[in-house]
Amino acid sequence: MTFRSLALSNVKGNWRAYGAFFLSSVFSVMIFYIYAAFIYHPDVVSGHILQADKVRSGMTFCLYLIIIFSFMFILYSNSAFLKTRKQEFGLFSLFGMTKKQLRKLVVYENMVIAILAIGMGILLGVLFSKLFFMALGALLDMQESIAFAVPLKAVWLTAGGFFALFLAISLWTVVRMGRTEIIDMLKAARKPKGRLVYSRWLVTLAAACLLSGYAMAYMMDSNTFVVLSLPILVTVVVGTYFLFTQLSVLLIGWIQNRKGIYYGRTNMLIFAQLGYKIRDNARILFVVSILSAVILTAMGTVYIMQIQSREQMLESSPYSLAYVEKGLHSQEVIDQKQLREILKSDGYSISRETKTVGLALEQYHLTFENSSREIGWENWEESSPELSLFIISATDYNKLAKQQGEPAIKVESGKLTLLYSNNFSTTLGPGRAVGVLNGKRFEMPVADSANVKVANNWIDSNFYTMVMDDLSFVDLLSGMPEEEQRVFYGIELKNWEKAAPTVAKLSELVPETMRGEKDFTRPERFVDMKAETSLILFIGLFISLLFFIAAGSMIYFKLFTELQEDQSQYKGLARIGMTRKEIRRIVVSQIAIVFYVPCAVGIVHALFAMKSLDNMMGSSNWLYSFVVIGAYIVMQTLYFLLASGSYMRSLTRVTAV
User: Fold this and answer.
1) In angstroms, rounded to a whole number, what is the distance separating the alpha carbons of residues 451 and 162?
2) 305 touches 533 (CB < 8 A)
3) Is 479 helix (H, G, I), strand (E, B) or coil?
4) pLDDT exceeds cutoff 70 at 179
5) Which residues contact 652 (CB under 8 A, 6 or more apart)?
6) What is the mean pLDDT of residues 513-522?
7) Among 141, 172, 301, 607, which is 20 to 30 Å from 511 by CA?
8) pLDDT-based confidence at 212, cuts 50/70/90?
9) How far apart are alpha carbons 624 and 154 in whole angstroms?
10) Pairwise CA distance, residues 228 & 230, whole Å
11) Torsional class of 376: left (φ above 0), alpha (ψ -120 to 50), beta (otherwise)
12) DSSP tag of 246
C-alpha cells in the first residue's frame, strides 16, 4: 500500500469526522469564488456596470476576511483532529513508520481534503454565481442583468489561494507534531480526566467582568462611546472566557448538590459527563460564543438601521408628496389635475391628504431663554427671504396630529409653539420669534417647542412649522390677501416605497424656479437607503453564514474527536441494561447544552450591544434584533438536529444499542 492510497483510506475511514470540516471548507471556497467572480467580471472591470463600483470595494474586503477566517478555522480543525489520532499514529509508529513518513502521511491527507474542497467549492461557485448576480442586480436596481461568466483570474485566485492556505497549514501542523513517544501516543485516550476544580477568584472575576461589561453597555451612549467601548470589549471577552473555564464548573457543581435535580431520571449521567465536556471544550465554546455575538450584533445593527432609517424618513417627511403654494388658489408649483391623473395611471391610491392654510414668517430669527441655540439669522432685517417659517392654527395642527397618530397640543393665547424634532427628545423651551409677516415686522413670544413633525419641512416656505392659537391666527389671516397666504398640500400614498418612478414624473412637472417649494424625495430616498442597506445585508449574510457554519462545525468536529471514548462508555451502559431511548436522551441532552450554551451567551452579548446602539442613536428599536436572533436560533436548531442525528448514528453503530 502506497502513502497516497493509505491517505485516501484514512480520509474515507474518518469521513464522518472530516465531513463538517470538509463542507465548511467547500462553503468558504464557494463564497470566495463568487465574490472574486464578481470583482473580476469583464463587465465590472471594464466599467460597463456603473452600480458595481458601490460594492466592489466591500467585496474585496470580504475576500481578505474569508481568507483570514479560513486560515484560523482550518488551523484549529487540523490541530484538534491530530490530537484525537495520537493512538492511531502510535500504532503506525509501532509498526515501523518513521516521524518523517508520519508527517508525509498527514500532508497527503490534508492535500486530499484540499483538492476535493477546492474543486467542489469552485464548481458550486460557478453553478450559483449566476443566481448571485441576479440577486445583486435586483438589489442594485440595474437596468441590465449581469451576464454569466467564469473569469479565469477568479478561478486561479481561488484555487491557488486556498491550495497555498491548506499547504501552509499542513506544513505548520506537522512541524508542531513534536517528539511524542510511542507509549504516550498509545495511552493518549486512556489518560484520566482528573477532578473538576475551579478558582474562587477567577469565578468572581468572571462574574464581575460580565456584570460590569453589561452595566457599561446598558449605560453607554454617543457621549461615552469613546471612553467605554474598549473597557466593555475587554471585560466581556475576559468574562466570557472564565465563564466557560471556571464559572461553568461551579454551576455544574451547584446542580450536582441539588439532589432533586441531579438524581432525577438520567440527569446524573448527563451532568457527570457534562462538566468534563465543557471543561475540555471551554476554549472552543468561548470562541463560538464570541463569534455568535459578533454575527448577531453585525446583522442586527444593519437590520435595525434599515428599520430606523425608514422610520426617520416617515418622521422627517410625514407625507410622500408635499408642496407649498403661494396663494389660496394658486397652482404654480404643480397642477393638481395632472398630479392626480399620473397617480391614477400608475396605479397609486391616496391613503390620506391635507390642504392646510397658513402664514409665512420671512427673515425669521428665534432665540430661547434656556438655550444658546438660535434659529434663523441674527440680523433678521438683512436675512435671506427665500426660507420662511410656516405658521398654522392650533385647530389645523390637531387635525394633522390626529390623522398621523400624534398627541394634540394646547397653545397659549398670544404665543407660538415651535415644532422642532431631534434625536434626543429635547425641547428648546420659551423664547421669542422675530420676522417679517405680510411685509411688516412681526414679533411674538414662543411658549415652548414640541418634539414632533406633522408637515414636511424640506420646503423653503416651510423650513420650520409653528403653531399659533386660533384667535390670533384668524386675526392675522383675515388681514392678509389671498394671494399672500400659503397653502400646504400633503399627500400620502399607499405603497409609497415603490413610487420612485412616479415621483420622478411628477418632479418634471414642477418648474425649475419652484423646486424648493416641494418635497417629493421620500420614495427616492427610501430606494437609495434600501439599496445600500439591503446590499450590506446581502453581502453580510454570506459572511455571517460562513461564520455560523464554521462555528457550528467546530462544535460538531469536537464531538467526533470524543466519539471513541463515548462509544466505550455507552457500550458499558448498554450492557448493564440501559435502553437505547435513555442513552439517546443522555447524548442529545449533552449535545444540546454544548450547542445552545454558547449560542445563548452570544445572544445575551448581542442584546446588550443592541441596547448600546439604541442609546447612541436615541431610538428604541432594539426589539427588532429579535428577528435576527430568531433566525439564528432556527439555523442553530437545524444544525443541532443534523449533528445530534449523525453523532447518534455513529455511536449506536458500534455500541449496538
Assistant:
1) 56
2) yes
3) coil
4) no
5) 580
6) 89
7) 141
8) very high
9) 38
10) 6
11) left
12) I
Distances in Å between the Cα of 28 and the Cα atoms of 25, 108, 429, 552, 557 are 5, 21, 57, 14, 17
Distance (Å) of CA 573 to CA 250, 271, 567, 583: 27, 16, 10, 8
Question: Which residues are paired to 388 by β-bridges?
Answer: 362
Q: β-strand 388-393 against 431-437: which pairing, if any? A: unpaired
Place of cell 502513502: 3
Query: Distance between alpha carbon 529 and the CA centroid of its chain, in Å?
Result: 16
Query: In the structure grid, which three cell numbers stand for residue 606, read together?
Result: 448581542
Contact between 654 and 567 under an 8 Å Cβ cutoff? The reply is: yes
Alpha helix ranges (H) inside 420-491: 470-478
> Which amino acid is present at 31?
I
Q: How far apart are the first and last CA of the chain?
A: 35
185: CB partners within 8 A, 6+ apart: 86, 87, 89, 90, 93
Higher model confidence: residue 557 or residue 193? 557
Question: What is the rounded distance in angstroms from the CA atom of residue 182 to the CA atom of residue 195?
Answer: 26
| Residues 303/632, Cβ–Cβ less than 8 Å | no
- What is the DSSP annotation of 62-109? HHHHHHHHHHHHHHHHHHHHHHHTHHHHHHHHHTT--HHHHHHHHHHH
- C-alpha–C-alpha distance, residues 485 and 506, integer Å: 24
Cβ 500 vs Cβ 323: under 8 Å: no
Q: In this structure, what C-alpha cell is assigned to residue 569?
A: 462508555
CB 332 within 8 A of CB 345: no
* pLDDT above 50: residue 46: yes
- The answer on pLDDT for 581 being more than 70 is yes
Q: Which residues make beta-bridge pairs with 490?
A: 322, 354
Helix, strand or coil for residue 411? coil
> Which residue bears the cell 456596470?
49
